[in-house]
Design brief:
The chain is mostly helical. Helix content is 64%, strand content 0%. Keywords: Bacterial flagellum biogenesis, Repressor, Transcription, Transcription regulation.
Length: 96
């Protein structure tokens, strides 16, 4: 069997290669310098969504009085939704 190459592994060269890769990634900068460069900028849409989430967090998810009224109408057989209203709602939900 013939083995070619530079001979035994030089661990100093391996360590130097890892350190060089770390410097390329910016890991050799002080933490303070990295913190000053890092920032987050939210778009107006994301701020709007965050505001809505905050407002809705305090509200009840299920309007229990409305749910009970619909349940009563379903039980009595008087709850009827026109098919055109259902179709419109589906299309609206799909964004058309």
């Amino acid at each position: 069997m013939k083995i070619t190459g530079e001979g035994p592994v030089s661990w100093n060269r391996v360590r130097a290669a890892y350190q060089q890769a770390a410097r390329v990634k910016g890991n050799d900068r002080p933490d303070k310098a990295r913190r000053e460069e890092d920032y987050v900028q939210l778009s107006p849409d994301s701020r709007f969504i965050n505001d809505l989430k905050t407002r809705l967090a305090g509200e009840e998810d299920i309007r229990s009085t409305r749910v009970e009224a619909i349940r009563a109408r379903l039980a009595a057989g008087t709850y009827n939704v026109p098919a055109a209203d259902v179709a419109d709602a589906i299309l609206k939900e799909m964004g058309r």
